[in-house]
Design goal:
Length: 833
Amino acid sequence: MVEKSDIRVVRCGGSKINLRPSVFSTDSRFVLCASGDSVKVYSTRTEECLHSLQGHTNQVTGITLNPANHLQVYSCSADGTVKLWDFIDGILIKTFIIGYPVFAICVSEKHEGIIFLQLSMATNSKSECLQLVAVHLPKSAEQEVEAKELSAVCSHISSNPSCTALGRGGEFIAFARHLQLNVYFFRKQKTYSFSLQATDKKGAKNAFTCVACHPTDDCIATGHEDGKIRLWRNFNQKKEYTYSTLHWHHNAVNTLCFTPEGTHLLSGGIESVLVQWKYGADNKKELLPRLGGAILHIAASSDGQLFCTSHSDNKLTVIESNFKVCGVIQGLVKGDDVLTDLMIDPRSKALVLNGRPGHLQFYSLLRDKHLYNLDIVQQEYIYEAGLDQFEVVKAVFDIKGSWLATVEERGRKSSDLEFFLKLWAYDEKTQSFVLNTTITAAHTDRIISMCFSSSEETTMLVTTAEDGQFKAWCQGADADTQQDQNFWSCDFVGSYHNLKPTNCSFSADSSLLAVSFQEVITIWSPETWEMLTTLCQPPGEIRDLCFGRLSCSKYLLSTTNRNLCCWNLLTCALEWSTSVEVSKLQPDPLSENVAAFSYQSKHTDLFVFKPSEPRPLFTHKNVCSEKVHRAVFVPQEEPLNNCDESSQWLNRSQLYFLTQNMDLLTFNQATEEDRMLSSSKRLVIDDSVAVTPFYLLLGKHRQQQQNLNTPSYTGADKPQQPQGSATIKELLHTPAHVLPAASVLCSMFVNSLLISKTGVREEMESSEQEMDSEKEEEDSEEEMEACDSQQELRAQGSVDEVTPKLSKAQEKELKRVRKTDFSWMTGLIDSKP
């Protein structure tokens, strides 16, 4: 058994982006939101994700702009840290260690160097009461600093961050809990409390749900469970306070937000209608309906030109001030439960599962972006609790992605069950699926499972239902007209001893069909519809059923609540079995590997194996604390070349799974995850700075190539400047708005360019000495040439023959010989006897 080595479970795309209110940049070009353990930066124009600020190790619970620098943002997390980011460049600037889980953050311009956090000081993290703490941020040059100065502002505040708000730029803070509103004034250091009755004469529910403060006036707006909005005034005096009431929402008010100028108040709730109240004019309002899911949060830009609403269907809607929707940022929709399996569209390689009510969503895991929704029910959904409406419960693709089969139901919890089987054909023109056939009475009872044949030549759909039958659906010729028909019809109906079928699966070549009936597996031939054999399962109803792939196609796997069995179809005998409770069995379509999730001892373990060998290739203990019922293998964009036995199963496909808490997780290698986290996310001036186009042109590797091609110089030829390299590197790689003032950097930069005086003097002295020696040599050469010319003239007068002229090379060689010192020869001659 191979243990887990360097493979670990990580959160992948599809995190919630509606957990906390979003934040606009001051120029309204970007909108920031908390997404899992990261902060995402979106463009308000293109709706594209520009940066993902990664660094927290737990859920990000709040974000807010830095009032001292509008290009920076604070983020707090349940990991007990607060991080300061440069969201334009996607760089982590500083980390403040708090030491306690942080649930919300707020700042004010009047409180410089102080942030307000909502902490849970109790040992029980699920405590409903939190404490509001003022944290004095230490000024340090280190990137990671521990914040030790914590001062409590107020205790026993609501765990809902929407019930706490700063007023008038930080003069007071209002926080509500249950039926009590508290206002704390920082100067007076005094708290005023106001209470409401649980119900009035008309039976209204007066519990507080959200709080917002006017930016300039002494006015606090509160939302309540009965849909009313109260505007509180004169709250600095406990006995003379007053409030007025606004009412439009028929259910609880989820969020309130004043515009920056304070001229309007925005409210939202379960009705999915954005309501804009004119401040100072009673009941004068403007409505923007049909925005999708329930409105959870509202944010306004600093100039008041854009609004952003967060919805329960994991969506952000960007709205202009004239109440026109200008952008929609859709995340992975996560409802209370995923009724369909996790599927992969063979064409787009997108993840497909339940989305908006009555829809299937197509989500790109590679780009972490919602592609589109496919309306299956094709009916308007009414957002009201208690209504029984159609929901998509089953869906499956064929092997080529040309057909999609869906099942929608209504009345699952009642005896009046209504369901439809629909088949959708892919349209090349519209690049989407179009409804082809609707079957109103496919079975007499609920459909349990369905699957398409694995062959690309013929397409067949098999459904099993609680009525004790399984049916085969296919396209064929009409019996009356003998013409090919484009719609689907029933081709065969099968059963076995009036037992209820539970699962069905085709072999890799579609030559066999396996249908499980409680504890018995039946093998059928799709060509003749003859039952070939039966396999008797150990006691227990069969949960999962799947064939092996590639070289393991002769094996058939089945699971019960206690056992995992592998059958050999060539011998019709049990190959091997093991006693383990498998909650989900998922085969990899591109390899022989099969993944099995086992829940035991209050945690889930993963086993990856091949049907031909009972020994697991890979095991991972304690993957999560919940049961795993949804999983899927996603083809790798580029196949990996892992040689390690424990990671070879990730070469062609990557395993994704969904927990009961709706967390989408996957398995990654440590090296792959480290490669994904770019070093440019951190403000560290070292050799790990991200490679940019400018760095490619003038970077270090270009200098190294230059050094290899050119000869090395000595220190006298090229003086070194060690003090300038670090300074210039810091100037080039640090964002301008993060650097100190120019007056501080100027002297450092100029000094780095200057050469020391000692080096200059030595260089000048050495150059002067070289010039003097060269001049002396030239003078001596001229004297020798003059002597030679005189001797030549004398020789010409005495001798009639004329000596031939020497070449320049010979003259130089002669001069070199004349300069040679031959005094050693005289000593040698004198020493002879």
